[in-house]
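so my prof wants the structure for this chain in the tokens format not the other one, which i didnt know existed until like an hour ago. anyway here's the sequence
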Amino acid sequence: MKNEQVAVAKRLFKAVEEFRKLNGEMQAQCMSLFLLVGMHKDSRGISMTDLKAKLGVAQSSVSRNVSILSKIKIAAEPGFGLVEAIEDPMERRRKLVRLTNKGNRVFKSLTE
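here's what i got, hopefully its the right format
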């Protein structure tokens, strides 16, 4: 294996371990959604529809993963507090997802 491949694998391993610190059973789809939200440059957030298209999953999967990563999961269980879904001020029926302050810290930790 080339040195650069090893370096990339080490960064990926570090990222997975950071997620495991939050929850040892976090699914890859949830990790992917978090990373997509973090990579989105618009500070207003990324729409649930765009997340659905980029992840190639059903809308219900996007909603479930946003819920898991949010402050309160389904059935009022505590979530991770990494993202928040807000109403789009330009189109009130649409939800935008963005990182919370905690989410920004975790994203920065993963990408350094």
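also thought this was worth mentioning. The chain has one domain: 3-111.
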